[in-house]
């Protein structure tokens, strides 16, 4: 399948990654995205953000090739905060119920 | 059925299941965000949980905010900032000097102006791409059903228990998701309600308190209202977009004096007057 193409060379961070991310969201599984990027900050940040989101990334010169992964990685997973996020979601004991009726 | 035709049947079934699965794959949403919208919302669009789908969900949503006071201010501001397409503000009060320490939407020159109008004027400054509408009425049991009708979400930032129970009943009847919150002194609570699916406000608090202290008597710290209002609007955005699980089937009790956050569980009651199965309709 031919890769989709996106030119972000005229954009600055973080719009470079925002544009790339929005494009990735619209793509079908197995499709690849070729991002044309200006040298500098974006060429470092966009591959890093894409990897953090769990996508497969290869960089060739100023072209970033991204193959999207299906499930996006959440902020808490990305910051290594997953265990804390899980603990937060765990329901409290039922004896707490009704003790706090202040509005 | 012979062995062969049975195999044929299962093969056919497998292909039907496979094509149904394929059909169920979500279509990528069309990117109908303008360049200006992408820039305005870039810091939320960049979040892994948020994306074009979440942005379009809020853009197309109509949210009613009841009360343009201490909770209503952060709620309305963040809803408008996030790009919620249509925001209705209900308040029949006028801005008073004693409001200004906590009600971020109103400023000293607004004293005497209708709160709903003052709030909507600020929201239009903040985000001219959205529709903000002022309603100078007091939400009560009589008009609650008409007010919540057709809304995608109601955020109750009112300051009385009577209003809270009336809005809860109306939202349960109309099946409109609701975020309740209250703040007093340095503590408060927040609760998301998906009517018919999760515990409603009356399930959690079946009896209306009769001698509850009011804000005017007990006082409230501005930042405490800001924290609770911010938690409340975060719930609203969660319910609108599904980017994270809401605080449903229970509530969050926040004590800002001790910085303690406590999740308290609540369950639906079959005999709930507002959402119970015995309720008519």
Description:
The complex is a heterodimer of chains A (103) and B (281). By secondary structure, chain A is α+β, with helices and mostly antiparallel strands. Chain A has a single domain, classed as TusA-like domain (Translation Initiation Factor IF3), CATH 3.30.110. Chain A has 4 helices and 4 strands, in the order βαβαββαα. Chain A has helices at 15-25, 41-52, 75-78, 82-89, and strands at residues 4-7, 33-36, 56-60, 63-67. Chain A has a 4-stranded mixed beta sheet, covered by helices on one side. In chain A, helix 1 links the parallel strand 1 and strand 2 (33-36). In chain A, helix 1 (15-25) crosses helix 2 (41-52). Chain A is globular, with a radius of gyration of 19 Å. The N and C termini of chain A lie far apart (58 Å). With 281 residues, chain B is α/β, with parallel strands linked by helices. Chain B has a single domain (34-265), classed as 3-Layer(aba) Sandwich (Rossmann fold), CATH 3.40.50. Chain B has helices at 3-24, 35-40, 42-45, 52-59, 72-82, 115-126, 144-148, 161-174, 201-204, 215-218, 222-241, and strands at 62-66, 86-90, 131-135, 153-156, 178-184, 187-193, 250-255, 260-265. Chain B has an 8-stranded mixed beta sheet, with helices on both faces. Classes of the chains: A alpha+beta (103), B alpha/beta (281). Chains A and B meet through helix 1 of A and helix 3, strand 6, strand 7 and strand 8 of B.
